[in-house]
Amino acid sequence: MTVKHSTLAQLSGQQLLSLLEQAVMPLYQQTSLQHERTPKLVLAYSGGVDSEVLAYGLSAFAQKYPHIACLLIHVHHGLSPNADTWVQHCITRAGYYQLPVQIERVNVDKGPRQSLEAQARDARYQAFDRYLNPGDILLTAHHQDDQLETLLLALKRGQGPKGLGAMGAIQAYHHAWLVRPLLDVSREQIEQFALQQRLTHIEDESNQDDSYDRNFLRLDIIPRLKQRWPSIAVTAARSAALCAQQQDVIDDEVSHRLPQWLMLASDDNASITESSGFKLSGFGQLSAAWQALLFRGYLSYCGVSLPSQAQLQQILSQLLAAKDDANMAIQWGGYQVKRYAGVAYVLSNSDLKTPEPLSLTVDFIRLLKGDITELQIDIGQHQCLLSQQISADKPLLALAPTNSKVTIRYGAAGSIKCQPQFATTQRPKPRELKKLWQECNIPPWRRQHIPLVFYDEVLVAAIGLWVDKRYLAQTGHQGISLL
């Protein structure tokens, strides 16, 4: 049930409490059943008039439901000379509301080519995230006029239904919930309520700076729109809701179609070192619209920031035109897309950095030589431990000869040969490393990340992949498990 405040002259305290109850209680009951602990309510508390009104309502809610924990969080961005004064205001008001408050100080990167608004928002939500447990509910004081601003900004950026859907009243947020109880309430109603209840609030001087896009809309554009069309915030919210509804249908259909295009690590042809890829076989036969929707769905599945429409079109064009052996890489932000063996992979730039050279510890060398009876060593994401060979089903690397030189390296010449334990009888001889990479479906950009074990100058194992047949521990003998 939604309260339509556009028909109300004023917002009352009872209506404010009702809005909170309608938004929060179903989620509270749902998450209480799913988690052993009961969820808490966390309010993003700036001290501005919007969050002040919501804090007032949360105070009434806390008195009615004392068993539900509530918390105010105020973020000190350090961007205004008045920031310390605002902190004191929030502490004082929290005492008045009888609600606990937490002050979080953050650093906002004010570098070139970066939106200060976006950087401050990211820092703010990172601060909120530190207080959210699974099932908790984050409350923000976004209202109907904020929704109109968000919709206009989405139009300015050329966004599709997802962007035009603007903000949802209730939506999943990481492992918690994000709830906007005031989304059907106008700015005018909020200000009237604050005046009626004599609520003191802070005025951020940056709100008058129309060099920021939101302030430009709020100060110059939206008042003129409302002057001509008084109900535009209401009708724009209706359009946003329709766009969001259509996006939900699209997302649902994409979620049903996407799995057939995913190459998961458990697939027989999937690389052991890749978590997921996107199969390209038959992808070019789809319509351009479905190509864009499915690949964007894959990027969302991988949890990466989405490219622009132009960047996405460039990615799809190059993916479909490139040959399988082409060394292609399309970059945006901190990510890039690569192609290997008919599969596309999205990777972060940090994933592609060459690992630091390994420095072997004395204990590790002793482990490989069997001088100690029990020790586990971590090599990156792998574990090496001393075990006893029970059967050939679990290959173990034989202990190194006493006088041999043991090294572990990242990367080796493709001409170096090895004979993995999985080699067939038709290939009884050692094979070149570059052929083994292909046989294991290891993409070129991952080959420099796999630790290789050498006894003297002989390649005896690739950690996590194989052990050379000639260096397998015999049944009943000790060996090294390379997981």
From TrEMBL:
<dbReference type="Pfam" id="PF01171">
    <property type="entry name" value="ATP_bind_3"/>
</dbReference>
<dbReference type="InterPro" id="IPR015262">
    <property type="entry name" value="tRNA_Ile_lys_synt_subst-bd"/>
</dbReference>
<comment type="function">
    <text>Ligates lysine onto the cytidine present at position 34 of the AUA codon-specific tRNA(Ile) that contains the anticodon CAU, in an ATP-dependent manner. Cytidine is converted to lysidine, thus changing the amino acid specificity of the tRNA from methionine to isoleucine.</text>
</comment>
<keyword id="KW-0067">ATP-binding</keyword>
<keyword id="KW-0819">tRNA processing</keyword>
<dbReference type="Pfam" id="PF11734">
    <property type="entry name" value="TilS_C"/>
</dbReference>
<dbReference type="Pfam" id="PF09179">
    <property type="entry name" value="TilS"/>
</dbReference>
<dbReference type="InterPro" id="IPR011063">
    <property type="entry name" value="TilS/TtcA_N"/>
</dbReference>
<dbReference type="InterPro" id="IPR012094">
    <property type="entry name" value="tRNA_Ile_lys_synt"/>
</dbReference>
<keyword id="KW-0436">Ligase</keyword>
<keyword id="KW-0963">Cytoplasm</keyword>
<dbReference type="InterPro" id="IPR012796">
    <property type="entry name" value="Lysidine-tRNA-synth_C"/>
</dbReference>
<dbReference type="InterPro" id="IPR012795">
    <property type="entry name" value="tRNA_Ile_lys_synt_N"/>
</dbReference>
<keyword id="KW-0547">Nucleotide-binding</keyword>
<feature type="binding site">
    <location>
        <begin position="46"/>
        <end position="51"/>
    </location>
    <ligand>
        <name>ATP</name>
    </ligand>
</feature>
<protein>
    <recommendedName>
        <fullName>tRNA(Ile)-lysidine synthase</fullName>
        <ecNumber>6.3.4.19</ecNumber>
    </recommendedName>
</protein>
<feature type="domain" description="Lysidine-tRNA(Ile) synthetase C-terminal">
    <location>
        <begin position="406"/>
        <end position="482"/>
    </location>
</feature>
<dbReference type="InterPro" id="IPR014729">
    <property type="entry name" value="Rossmann-like_a/b/a_fold"/>
</dbReference>
<comment type="similarity">
    <text>Belongs to the tRNA(Ile)-lysidine synthase family.</text>
</comment>
<dbReference type="GO" id="GO:0032267">
    <property type="term" value="F:tRNA(Ile)-lysidine synthase activity"/>
</dbReference>
